[in-house]
Backbone:
């Protein structure tokens, strides 16, 4: 086999340099800094720092507050992932059956994707607001006193709903294209073999959709863990103390509000390890993903 | 096993296109009927209407003694073999075949017995645990057949099942399908655009054109007495020669001023006609009474050769036995009077 190669040894390195620079400046350098400062106790006002070894980590794992945030993050991730995937799948299955006006329907479902997370958070604040929120009014109508930003679970509810809402369009697009790539004749063969539409969905359609679903599962977990920062920030900005937050948001709160740079760095290192594990898991499984055709 | 009865069935799409014009036919128990026609003639639509994959706009469809118009495909007691096999890619060969039975509540033992019987019949025993993607085209087609057989349906529907196979395999599968259908005695409807498949497999052929059934008949009826110029030119390879001519009403056809041919049985018609002559019913001759033919091109087919040229100024093809004799450019043809097919000049209908 003939391989195309570069005659000059330095040329490929030169071509890669811009990318390598960007990765170095925006990832390796901060990551190295984070690891380094996680071993130090820093003076909040910048007057030097003291090496403390693994103390930041042991404090972290002993902290009840941290455990509580971790538990909430887990619950939040599970709920956001499951709800947004299930809703998107339902919408995609229905949209797939629409023949007339399919384009309009799809566009209507997709435009939400264009809304930036902080804007979505702001819309959430408006909807769930104590005084002007229409969702609050709805709850009041049912006799429930909904208090965003005051009641822990009320805030959590708003966070989950807004995060799910924003994520549905992406999932919808992927599910729909996955559904449309299932050959028509396979579905027809199933119609002849199985009288039950429900059975056909779970035994034929869904298994053929599994690669898409698995890919989306990983994407959604990553989203719920990390990309919901903007939404959470808008919803709990003024009083994070009594409100739920995720691990990522806690890094920000402890580091930049609490000025505990060492502890915050230790938290980001923990998250970094988590992301690494998730990435390895994803690649291992995606590589083994079954290609049916 | 059952007969099929179709009364005034038609298919109109919302945009007004008439895919299948009202048609009537009956298929006897155990008969294999081939629907043949060019693409877009409505043959697949008709088959899919029988399967229940396409709504029936009007008319009545009966399979066995049940009217099945409003039944779901799964309730019509049919099995269908698709052009692209339509196997379930995530299931093993065994599960592909068992799926339809499982959904009908057949017991595990019965399923196993039927699947094993079918796989033995189709030489699939070694492949039962494989996925469809690990099989060759011919094997996939067999699995699709197996899936249809195990169900023991009242009616088999074949939608161009051999189109995706190469020529050699197609010939082999053609015989296999025919044998299997005979042995099982299941009524079958078979759609194809390949006239050789239609001729070789059918008990009866339905020739379709532009949503209409042009002719129904046994292969030899279709070949010997085509009902129209469309059927004449569609069935038979190479196709029948069609020439404009005039008929004088008393026994001879004039191709142009000087060339005339004698007709066997006189027809009650006078004037312009379309004259059809099969390439293989014409012989090379030497006599004075023969018709002159100007040879332009020879196609060697091995056992025979096709001579393309001009007869009375019109394109004409002769299928002559191959005796390796060199041929001159100017030949004489012996055209027997019973080889002449006469069609109406305007409508193309047989006279």
Residues:
């Amino acid at each position: 086999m003939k391989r195309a190669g570069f005659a000059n040894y330095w040329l490929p390195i030169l071509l890669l340099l811009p990318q390598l620079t960007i990765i170095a400046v925006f990832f390796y350098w901060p990551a190295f800094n984070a690891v380094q400062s996680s071993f130090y106790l820093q003076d909040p006002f910048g007057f030097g720092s003291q090496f403390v070894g693994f103390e930041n980590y042991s404090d972290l794992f002993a902290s009840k507050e941290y455990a509580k945030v971790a538990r909430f993050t887990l619950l939040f991730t599970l709920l956001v992932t499951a709800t947004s995937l299930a809703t998107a799948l339902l919408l995609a299955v229905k949209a797939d059956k629409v023949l007339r006006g399919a384009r309009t329907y799809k566009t209507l479902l997709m435009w939400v994707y264009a809304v930036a997370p902080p804007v979505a958070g702001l819309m959430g604040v408006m909807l769930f607001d104590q005084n002007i929120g229409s969702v609050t009014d709805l709850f009041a109508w049912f006799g429930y006193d909904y208090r965003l930003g005051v009641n822990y679970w009320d805030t959590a509810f708003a966070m989950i709903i807004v995060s799910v809402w924003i994520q549905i369009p992406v999932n919808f697009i992927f599910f729909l294209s996955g559904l449309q790539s299932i050959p028509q004749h396979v579905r027809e063969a199933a119609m002849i073999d199985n009288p039950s539409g429900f059975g056909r969905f779970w035994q034929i359609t869904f298994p053929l959709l599994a690669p898409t679903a698995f890919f989306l599962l990983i994407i959604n977990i990553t989203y719920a863990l990390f990309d919901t920062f903007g939404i959470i920030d808008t919803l709990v900005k003024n009083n994070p103390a009594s409100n739920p937050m995720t691990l990522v948001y806690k890094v920000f709160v402890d580091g930049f509000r609490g000025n505990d740079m060492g502890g915050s760095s230790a938290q980001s290192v923990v998250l970094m390890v988590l992301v690494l594990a998730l990435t390895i898991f994803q690649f291992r499984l995606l590589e083994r993903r079954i290609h049916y055709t | 096993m059952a007969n099929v009865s179709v009364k005034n069935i038609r298919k109109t799409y919302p945009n007004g296109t008439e895919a299948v014009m009202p048609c009537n036919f009956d298929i006897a128990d155990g008969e294999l009927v081939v629907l043949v026609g060019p693409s877009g003639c409505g043959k697949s639509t008709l088959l899919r209407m029988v399967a229940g994959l396409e709504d029936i706009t009007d008319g009545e469809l009966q399979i066995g003694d049940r009217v099945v118009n409003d039944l779901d495909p799964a309730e019509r007691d049919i099995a269908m073999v698709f052009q692209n096999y339509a196997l379930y890619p995530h299931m093993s060969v065994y599960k592909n075949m068992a799926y339809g039975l499982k959904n009908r509540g057949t017991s595990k033992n019965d399923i196993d017995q039927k699947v094993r019987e079918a796989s033995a019949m189709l030489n699939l025993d070694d492949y039962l645990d494989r996925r469809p993607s690990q099989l060759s085209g011919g094997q996939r087609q067999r699995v699709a057949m197996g899936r249809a057989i195990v169900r023991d349906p009242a009616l088999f529907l074949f939608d161009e099942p051999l189109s995706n196979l190469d020529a050699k395999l197609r010939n082999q599968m053609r015989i296999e399908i025919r044998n299997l259908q005979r042995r099982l005695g299941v009524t079958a409807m078979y759609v194809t655009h390949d006239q050789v498949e239609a001729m070789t497999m059918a008990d009866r052929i339905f020739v379709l054109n532009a949503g209409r059934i042009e002719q129904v008949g046994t292969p030899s009826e279709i070949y010997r007495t085509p009902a129209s110029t469309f059927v004449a030119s569609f069935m038979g390879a190479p196709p029948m020669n069609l020439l404009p001519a005039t008929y004088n009403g008393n026994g001879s056809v004039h191709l142009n001023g000087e060339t005339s041919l004698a007709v066997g049985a006189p027809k009650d018609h006078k004037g312009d006609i379309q004259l059809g002559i099969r390439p293989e019913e014409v012989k090379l001759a030497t006599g004075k009474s023969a018709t002159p033919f100007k040879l332009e091109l020879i196609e060697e087919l091995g056992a025979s050769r096709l001579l393309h040229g001009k007869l009375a100024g019109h394109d004409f093809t002769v299928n002559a036995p191959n005796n390796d004799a060199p041929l001159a450019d100017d030949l004489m043809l012996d055209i027997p009077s019973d080889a002449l097919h006469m069609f109406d000049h305007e409508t193309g209908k047989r006279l």
